[in-house]
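note to self — DONT lose this again. spent like an hour looking for the file last time. sequence + predicted structure for the chain T wanted, 166 res
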Amino acid sequence: MIVSLIAAVAQNGTIGNKGKIPWDIASDLLRFRRITLNHHVIMGRKTFESIGKPLASRTNIVITRNKDYRAEGVLIAHSLEEALRVARARGEVEAMVIGGAEIYRSALRFASRIYLTRLDRKFEGDAFFPDLDKSWKETITDYQRVTFKRGLGENLGMRFCLLEKS
């Protein structure tokens, strides 16, 4: 089974601020949906709670240390390794790790692919994507300029990247 990470990351590494994504970019959300559709998506409890509900047409696996945690419409795992075992046992070919910061850091050692949206500006944040070592190679890039909704409707450049472990 391939383990992939998918994230949107600001120039300064920000992926979140106060439990929310600090931007709202329709084309990035559409890309996220297209890539993750019909796959197992693995996320931490805080990420799940910030989304507010299971993602449709995907098997949602929520990682939590709380043995009593329950949520409707999701599978619960108590470690990343357990979440990956569950996805593999259910026949998944490419499990998608969708955050948050702690889960991304833990998942890097298992991952062979990262779908990354790189935003061309800094955002204030308190959650950051982990630094990548030199073994990650960018294989595909598509550049776009968009207007994002949060803030003043300003233009923003972004690159849709696929990185693979060499």
